[in-house]
Amino acid sequence: MVKVLIADDHHVVRRGLMFFLKTQQDIEVVGEAVNGKEAVEMAGRLNPDIVLMDLVMPEMDGIQATRKIKEQHPGIIVLMLTSFSDRDHVLPAMEAGAAGYQLKDIEPDELVESIRSLMRGENTLHPKATSQLAKGPADPVPHMVNLLTPREKEVLAELTKGKSNREIASALFVTEKTVKTHISNIFTKLEVQDRTQAALYAVKHGLTDPEN
């Protein structure tokens, strides 16, 4: 069972998420937090696998709460679920340690698949969030990028779109095993820990185009 903690200051939103997630046989909602401070406390006490985190909440916002949760409990996955898709919200959330970023207009089935994707170690970014990140000014390209092979740059560009290993393999006409090898090499060369960090690195440094 995937243990989920819901953190949102709107009762209607929490009830709606609770109602739908309870219908999933592989998901258990272990608690509801009404603000960021409570989310941090409950994360430590309930040890959920995933926290569905609202962005704007009283007492402590979702970005601050995410940062504290990741500092205190690195193994807990945070999925932002919010109404804001602009770069000024997306980038700080990802830098705070959120593993995924979805908007509240997401279809319920897609939200469940996002939760399952994160549990598989994949990244899940709403297309609007990815687009907003890519619109910002690119940071200077570090020397590590020069270590990437042309194929690894292609894999990184596909990964940034939120594609699974299977989808990347299909797009590039290679095996999933080959994709896994490339992704492992990308993590090592860019000094990142997971797919979300790799995707964030790519958009911050203008690497969403494999030709760069």
UniProtKB/TrEMBL annotation:
Q: What is this protein called?
A: Response regulator
Q: Which domain of life is it from?
A: Bacteria
What residues bear 4-aspartylphosphate in this entry?
Answer: D54
Domain named HTH luxR-type: which ranges?
141-206
**Domain (Response regulatory): residue spans on this chain:** 3-119
Q: Which keywords describe this protein according to UniProt?
A: DNA-binding, Phosphoprotein, Transcription, Transcription regulation
CDD domains xrefs: LuxR_C_like, REC_NarL-like
Quote the PROSITE patterns the UniProt record gives.
HTH_LUXR_1 (PS00622), HTH_LUXR_2 (PS50043), RESPONSE_REGULATORY (PS50110)
Q: Which Gene3D superfamilies match?
A: 3.40.50.2300
**Matching Pfam families:** GerE, Response_reg
Q: Which residues form a coiled coil?
A: none
Q: Which InterPro entries match?
A: CheY-like_superfamily (IPR011006), NreC/VraR/RcsB-like_REC (IPR058245), Sig_transdc_resp-reg_C-effctor (IPR016032), Sig_transdc_resp-reg_receiver (IPR001789), Tscrpt_reg_LuxR_C (IPR000792), WalR-like (IPR039420)
